[in-house]
Amino acid sequence: MDVKGYAAPETGQAYARARKLWEQLGSPSEFLQVPYGQSIYHRFRGEVDLAQRLAEDLLHLSLRRHDSAGIVLGHLSSGRNLMFAGRLASSRSHFEEVLALYDPNSHYSFDHQTGVHPHVTSQTNLGIVLFCLGFPDQALAQSSAATAEARRLAHPSSLAGSWASGAILLSLIGDSAALDERVDRLVEVATEQGFPHYRAEGTIYRGWGKVKNGNVAEGLLLLRSGASAYRATGAVSWVPYYIALLAAACEISGRVEEGLALLDEALQISERTGERWFLAELSRRKGQLLLRQGHTEAAEELYRKALGIAREQEAKLWELRAAVSLARLRRDQGRHAEARDILGPVYGWFTEGFDTPDLKEAKSLLDELSA
């Protein structure tokens, strides 16, 4: 996983062989990292349903045996799979179970057996889930705590994972300054340890940082090279999001047609793999680009589709973004009251995160509509 990548063919072959041996031995608890690792492999290959079936089997087996280590691994694996599937509330529950059940005294060998530290990994992923669910402040708190613990443990793979997940969160929030610092640390660890997966992710986020800071040409080059290196490891998970970053860079540079083609590719991958956590945003962003081409009805349809997906997933942050886009469209049509009715209730749900760009933008639009 570390040397070749989580989804590399060699990783899959090693786990397939290990699985056969594990089953021949009667599936002993001493080697529960085998089904856990297989679930990771298939998730990164974009086989979300298969990954979750493996995680459920691991959790059920461990519950029957009252095996606390296996229960922790089962919840951790399920939490990550369900996050990708867009089942965010369920994902949150599994991660919180890990945080409640993990015992550093009895589970101290996890990081060596599995390549990750369950407590750190749960916190980093929980941060992303909490952001999508509409709790930006809690999301940042979990991410910061995970990074602090990973530094204390000095476990390279967990440290790289915490930096990478933190970079995802900061790119979602829109904190470019903090993202640049996080990416520097990620690239440093990945280069030093020879982690191709994390080095590729670092290149992607470094490119996005360049774009956000105004250096669009160099940013596009880094985004493309990073995405190419990432996919060369065999990984498919996260790819729709990385394509969306590239599409956003194209939009900034005025390359609307290319941006639309990229978003269509991302939507097709999401449909094929079942990675739905960013699906609402992909639909909304496609609507934005179509609106730039003058396709108002198509844009509105996609905004409403984004709202529906977000509500189904209880993803309040994506719902807010879709509501802002639709309300802005109504404002431009002179339908201010309708725009307020769309955005007001969604914004009113939030209890935190008012310093984030998303909440500030929504508040500014509501103030304009009420003037």
Describe the structure.
It is a single chain. By secondary structure, the protein is an all-alpha fold. It has two domains: about 10-275, Serine Threonine Protein Phosphatase 5, Tetratricopeptide repeat, CATH 1.25.40; about 280-370, Serine Threonine Protein Phosphatase 5, Tetratricopeptide repeat. Helices cover about 80% and strands about 0% of the residues. It is built from 19 helices and no strands. It has helices at about 10-25, 35-45, 50-65, 70-85, 90-100, 110-115, 120-135, 135-155, 155-175, 175-195, 195-210, 215-230, 240-250, 255-275, 280-290, 295-315, 315-330, 335-350, 355-370. The radius of gyration is 21 Å and the shape is globular. It starts with 8 loop residues before the first helix and ends with a helix. The model has no long low-confidence stretch (mean pLDDT about 95).
Give a concise summary.
With 371 residues, this protein is an all-alpha fold. Helix content is 80%, strand content 0%.
The topology string of helices and strands comes to: HHHHHHHHHHHHHHHHHHH
Q: What level of helicity do the residues show? A: over 70%
- How is the main sheet built? none
The secondary structure category is mainly alpha
The number of distinct β-strands equals: 0
Q: Please write the CATH class name of the largest domain.
A: Mainly Alpha
CATH architecture of the largest domain: Alpha Horseshoe
What is the fourth-level CATH superfamily of the largest domain? Tetratricopeptide repeat domain
| CATH topology type of the largest domain | Serine Threonine Protein Phosphatase 5, Tetratricopeptide repeat
Radius of gyration: 21 Å
* Strand percent estimate: under 5%
